[in-house]
Amino acid sequence: TTQLPRPDQTRIFVVANQKGGVGKTTTAVNVAAALAQKGLRILVVDLDPQGNASTALDIAHTEGTPGVYEALVEDVPLSELVRPAPQLPGITVLPATIDLAGAEIELVSLVARETRLKKALAAHLEERERADDRIDYVVIDCPPSLGLLTVNALVAAREVLIPIQCEYYALEGLGQLVRNIELVRAHLNQDLEITTILLTMYDARTRLSAGVAEQVRSHFGPKVLATAIPRSVRISEAPSYQQSVLTYDPGSSGALSYLEAAREIAQSGTSDPTTSERGA
Ligand code: ADP
Ligand code: MG
Questions:
Q1: Which InterPro entries match (predicted)?
Q2: Is 205 part of a structural domain of the chain?
């Protein structure tokens, strides 16, 4: 299999959509798994107290397990918290536990509450780079809300990946997400940009899916990946075996589509600062 090119600097993606159940976690896990399978080095940050990404990557995250809560609230360095994904060489994971549910409130009273993840991540990336162990991609999985955890992710990232479920009301709420991203960009992170839209749970047999896809493509243009992720039982089964679909059923349409989406992402390369301003 052909390997994918390494980006010239670490690309930091936040997978965001304040709606639950649209495929954020599935996308974070499987894009990370696909990139890793192609020889790249990935850090997955699980920022959802439910810890679904940690589960799918086979990382322990029972209550009290040190993870992203300790990084955000107690300033514990990431190097003491990240764990290698047992089945996916190249992936390390910053796990989330249910303790993180309290962080949304505890963060409110902390100094620099919006930039805590950014600082922790920057220190870790630098440390890994110095150790000749550079991370190519950081993929941050968000909870289904626009609270302080998601704001921390939007401040830490450079690129937003929005999964959109090909269902009724798919576009509802997207305006609010886009406005929040613009607010973060104006006040907290001028480098932030929506670079990638991924259509998920696409059902080629229905006019509904085709209609949603058409609407999303006419609104977001070339940011929408050509690959749409099909609705697939194999994709939804994989996490209950603590697996990505790439390891659970490598030949399935779900696995192949996530590989293809990852290839598109890798080939889109780093965004060129001279052309990415888009009328800011
Ligand atoms: P979110 O993180 O946005 O809440 P998830 O990734 O957890 O969404 O997905 C919601 C549910 O849909 C999960 O049960 C997941 O297994 C399932 N799912 C996600 N993508 C697909 C797909 N392409 N085909 C079938 N089921 C999917
Ligand atoms: Mg999720």
A1: AAA_dom, DNA_Partitioning_ATPase, P-loop_NTPase
A2: yes
Q: pTM for this one?
A: 0.95
Instruction: Find out whether 12 and 121 touch, Cβ atoms under 8 Å.
Output: yes
**CB-count burial class (<10 Å; 0-12, 13-18, 19+) for 8:** exposed
Q: What is the CATH number of the domain that holds 69?
A: 3.40.50.300
ipTM of the complex: 0.99
Residues composing the chain: 280
- Quote the number of domains for the chain: 1
CA gap 276, 100 in Å, rounded: 34
State in Å: Cα 132 to ligand 1 middle.
35
Q: What is the tens place of the pLDDT at every residue in 20-64?
A: 999 999 999 999 999 999 999 999 999 999 999 999 999 999 998
User: Which SS3 state, helix, strand or coil, does residue 196 take?
Assistant: strand
Residues having CB closer than 6 A to ligand 1 are 20-26, 52, 144, 200-201, 229, 231-232, 235-236, 239
